[in-house]
Amino acid sequence: MQEIRPFFSIIIPTYNASSTLAKAIDSILSQTFTSFEILIMDGESSDTTVQIAKSFLNFDHPISIISQSDDGIYDAMNNGIKKARGLYFYFLGADDYLIDNTVLADIHQQLIITSTDVIYGNVLSPSLGSSYMGECDDQLIFHKNIAHQSIFFHRRIFELTGYFNLKYRTHADWAHNINWFFNSEITNQYFNRVIAHYADGGYSSRTKDHQFRKDLISMYYLNAINRNSKLKVVFNITKGMFSRITR
User: Fold this and answer.
1) Rounded to whole angstroms, how far apart are CA atoms 170 and 230?
2) Which of 13, 110, 128, 230 is the most exposed place for a label (fewest CB within 10 A)?
3) Where are the alpha helices (DSSP H) in the chain?
């Protein structure tokens, strides 16, 4: 008998997340749309993270728990991609949670209508506000990242772009976003809806990614030139750098 593929694979990288993981999982299990799997990608936590994850195994939805040594958050996310069976992938932080119980239903409906490769919405956070960040454009993505907690990816995206680049310790998702955003083979759509609560104080907010900052201009230029003139790309870079300095 042919295996039934879940529509969504929800990948949660964890490390010593015992204080927040249950809320993240509860927000998924309470969804009205139920064609999903949950993959807990744990980096050998030393607290009760794995035990908490295992306490949800008796629920009706498939939950996989893999606890193994990894090279950080993005390595865990990459490992999740390799194991995921869903049509669309979503990455939720262990200290984040879906904002209400119809998120997956609403996203599913939009994807059925549009068949887009990437759909993204907004996140709510104490520091970013109630609707970060709105619709992205060719200039904005240079100096603002689309939060991964607001993005759903068709599984083929990672066949076209490759996995998250581990040389970027805290902004591999931003580098990946720049890649797919300018890829002519990948369609994307903004959906004006809050997807998740994005927690402040995580690893990316506490750690500078110097390699990403070093590579940003060339990375952006090489991708943005796919659909913009050289003059427009340079203008966007200049405007983006000014926005960073003055904000």
Assistant:
1) 29
2) 230
3) 21-29, 49-54, 73-83, 103-114, 140-143, 157-161, 172-181, 203-206, 210-224, 230-246
Output the pLDDT for position 206.
62
Structure tokens at 97: 């949670």
The third-level CATH classification (topology) of the domain covering 8-246 is Spore Coat Polysaccharide Biosynthesis Protein SpsA; Chain A (3.90.550)
Q: Is the dihedral of CA 200, 68, 10, 186 positive or negative?
A: positive
Cα–Cα dist 241/247, whole Å: 10
Tell me what the mean pLDDT of segment 67-72 comes to: 95
d(CA 50, CA 53) in angstroms, rounded, equals 5
| Threshold 0.70, pTM exceeds | yes
Phi, psi of 40 (to 5 degrees): -90, 115
For 153, phi then psi, to 5°, come to -115, 130
CA distances from 192 to 9, 150, 157 (A): 22, 11, 22
Of 73, 55, 57, the C-alpha closest to 18 is 55
Q: What stretch of H or E contains 12? A: strand 8-14
Between CA 94 and CA 101 the distance in angstroms is 17
pLDDT digits (tens, 9 = 90+) for 151-173: 999 999 999 999 999 999 999 99
For 128, the token pair is 């970013």
Task: Tell me which residue of 139, 221, 211, 120 sits closest to 179, measured CA to CA.
Answer: 221
Three-class secondary structure of residue 10 per DSSP? strand
